[in-house]
Design brief:
This protein has 237 residues and is an alpha+beta fold. The protein has helices at residues 45-50, 123-132, 137-140, 154-157, 186-196; strands at 22-24, 31-33, 37-40, 62-65, 70-71, 75-76, 85-87, 89-95, 111-118, 121-122, 146-147, 152-153, 164-169, 172-178, 204-206, 214-215, 221-226, 230-236. The longest helix has 11 residues, at 186-196. The protein is globular. 38% of the residues are buried. Bound molecules: manganese (II) ion.
């Protein structure tokens, strides 16, 4: 365990502490330690419409996934208690620096890098939760619900503002969009989140998905690409 979280080698845990989730980094032996996953809802107009809503520039909303939701071995275990798990391809923003009340103009200084991720969703449970006015956790924050690819440092690729976002399932294009279609841009998301939470180095932001979400089945091969960022290949097991 790291000593930077207020623990010391002398600390005695009564149970084994949870192992830190990490993501690989392009061209590096070092790994990225994952803290929390913040996800934004309905950040592409066309996806907002397909989910039955009007695109909204006034009120972004966020939900969490726990750190253990991030999985990077290219496998997505089909989760229990659902018959309708959907893929949502999203650009992942990895924060290298935290803070509160971060200004939009300073926000990108807090970004370590970017990656390709999936916000896997139990759509049937989400629909029930929406109908009942209940929280989304069982639909969104289940174990392994956020397959993530290798992170690419911003020092290598800059801060992508446009670029094709494509998800293929078994070779067939299912989702297609462009980073420039995001309603809330990366600096705005960081600034707004930092008004509600003290952001921490290690936090990830999943930036929303373009249109074309749909169900997956065991055995499906998901291949996501974000132009200028990278790729992710995941098998549903
Ligand atoms: Mn999503």
């Amino acid at each position: 365990m790291s000593q930077t979280q207020g623990t010391t080698n002398a600390a005695q845990f009564v149970i084994d502490p949870t192992e830190r989730t990490t993501l690989a980094i392009e061209d590096s032996e070092a790994v990225f330690p994952v803290n929390r996953l913040f996800c934004i809802g309905r950040n592409y107009a066309a996806h907002s419409v397909e989910m039955g809503h009007d695109p909204d520039k006034e009120h972004p909303f966020f939900f969490f996934k726990h750190a253990g939701a991030a999985r990077s071995d290219g496998q997505f275990p089909y989760p229990p208690k659902t018959a309708d798990v959907h893929h949502e391809i999203e650009m992942v923003v990895a924060l290298g620096k935290g803070g509160r009340d971060i200004a939009v103009a300073d926000a990108l200084d807090h970004v370590f890098g970017y990656g390709v991720g999936l916000d896997m969703t139990r759509r049937d449970l989400q629909a029930e939760a929406k109908k009942a006015g209940r929280p989304w956790e069982v639909a969104k924050s289940f174990d392994d619900s956020a397959p993530c690819g290798v992170l690419v440092p911003a020092s290598l690729i800059g801060h992508p503002e446009h670029g094709a976002v494509v998800l293929k399932v078994n070779g067939e294009v299912r989702q297609q969009g462009d980073l420039n279609q995001m309603i809330w841009k990366v600096p705005e998301m960081i600034a707004i989140l930092s008004q509600y939470f003290e952001l921490k180095a290690g936090d990830l932001i999943l930036t929303g998905t373009p249109a074309g979400v749909g169900p997956v089945q065991r055995g499906d091969r998901l291949e996501g690409t974000i132009e200028g960022v990278g790729a992710l290949a995941v098998t549903v097991i």
